[in-house]
Amino acid sequence: MREELIATLKENQTALYRVALGYVHTEAEALDIVQISAEKALRQVGQVKEKQYLKTWLFRILINTAIDAQRKQARRHEIGDDVLTFMPALAGVAPETRLALEQAVSDLSDKEQAIIRLHFFEDQTFGEIALTLQLSENTVKTTYYRSLKKLEALMDGGI
Amino acid sequence: MTLADLKIQYTQQDIPTEKLTAVINQAIVATAPKRKRLNWWQSSVIGVGAVAAAFTLALNTSYSFANASERVPVVRDAVKVLLFREYKHVDKTSYADIKVPLLTNLRDRQLSDKLNTAYAEEGRALYESFMNKTNDTPKSMTQTYAEKVNNEQLLVLERRQDISSADTATKLRYTTIDKQNGLVVTLPMLFKANAYQAILKNYVNEQIAASKQYDTPVAAIGPKQTFYINNKGELVLVFQRGEIAPMYVGAVAMTIPTDEIDSQLISHAYVK
């Protein structure tokens, strides 16, 4: 299984990095998250019984690691969890857009955010996301459309 | 700016591909299963074996009677007990033959050095006490040794001293060595708490009561009780000649069924 995991890691490295970067400010932090997640996954690979679940399991570890890193950072800078930024490293976003985006995202839970990140930005299927977040596929779908509507209203309508 | 624009921004981000590949490779290396370092070890066995052979031969060339096979190390046996030195003395009224073992190729050099020094000192002391004649000096004294068990995990070295003056006495001693971890196994190490002493004592005394041959119940089994672990992974307690049975019976080795002490064992690493 270790060999298969290594292959999965290499295949998905860009997506892993982009998702990680969506939680933190800098390239170095994102790379750290990828490395820590990869190590965690490689150490625990015995837990995975079927090859088809490797990818979603890997993304679950990545998202949990990223959220942990984000929280630690918030604590270091003594800001509350509620002002965690959404994709802070994304350059070329106008300040007004960023404000609107942060406001919109602050209404979303970790899972709702993760669904947006994985489906809207990474084009993962609802089925994969359901496995990653351990939700039913229907929950993922309805949550996605609800969250997207919120975002669209604030982004496209507001500015 | 719309969400669609945001997505374009997202997909156009620069990806530091090289660094990314590097961190993933680092993770792979950091978690790589540890390879058995057999190669350097196998080659060093040959080196150590050859040195030990030269050393031992040099020390023993004057004793032509020593069994040649005892001195030639077999390289494929990782750990081997060699004849280090033989003290021999024969005159009209007395006889001594003290063989001192030498452990070689034990992975832990410190341990083998420590044990070898102890054996060498013990041998020399025996010889000196023999040569320094007093009224108590026995008529004859021999020490021999044997590899009682030598398997993947354990080496049990038996040393047997036979001393005769008016009477004869035999003293058996065992060193049980964990070759993999480089340590000497002691009795307290095997058990969780001191309760084993009572359990062993009761079991031994039951056997003594049930047997016609053994006659003296033991008062206690202490942490220094002579013991070894046999090839089947059973604990064997050894009682010196005359300790629990009449002198003519000799030393008694009593195998303890593992069931009796199972609840007290720390693990089944040694006693199975």
Automatic annotation (TrEMBL), chain A:
<dbReference type="Pfam" id="PF04542">
    <property type="entry name" value="Sigma70_r2"/>
</dbReference>
<protein>
    <submittedName>
        <fullName>RNA polymerase subunit sigma-24</fullName>
    </submittedName>
</protein>
<keyword id="KW-0731">Sigma factor</keyword>
<keyword id="KW-0804">Transcription</keyword>
<dbReference type="InterPro" id="IPR013325">
    <property type="entry name" value="RNA_pol_sigma_r2"/>
</dbReference>
<comment type="similarity">
    <text>Belongs to the sigma-70 factor family. ECF subfamily.</text>
</comment>
<dbReference type="InterPro" id="IPR036388">
    <property type="entry name" value="WH-like_DNA-bd_sf"/>
</dbReference>
<dbReference type="InterPro" id="IPR013324">
    <property type="entry name" value="RNA_pol_sigma_r3/r4-like"/>
</dbReference>
<dbReference type="InterPro" id="IPR013249">
    <property type="entry name" value="RNA_pol_sigma70_r4_t2"/>
</dbReference>
<feature type="domain" description="RNA polymerase sigma factor 70 region 4 type 2">
    <location>
        <begin position="99"/>
        <end position="151"/>
    </location>
</feature>
<dbReference type="GO" id="GO:0016987">
    <property type="term" value="F:sigma factor activity"/>
</dbReference>
<dbReference type="InterPro" id="IPR014284">
    <property type="entry name" value="RNA_pol_sigma-70_dom"/>
</dbReference>
<dbReference type="GO" id="GO:0003677">
    <property type="term" value="F:DNA binding"/>
</dbReference>
<keyword id="KW-0805">Transcription regulation</keyword>
<dbReference type="GO" id="GO:0006352">
    <property type="term" value="P:DNA-templated transcription initiation"/>
</dbReference>
<dbReference type="InterPro" id="IPR007627">
    <property type="entry name" value="RNA_pol_sigma70_r2"/>
</dbReference>
<dbReference type="Pfam" id="PF08281">
    <property type="entry name" value="Sigma70_r4_2"/>
</dbReference>
<feature type="domain" description="RNA polymerase sigma-70 region 2">
    <location>
        <begin position="10"/>
        <end position="76"/>
    </location>
</feature>
<dbReference type="InterPro" id="IPR039425">
    <property type="entry name" value="RNA_pol_sigma-70-like"/>
</dbReference>
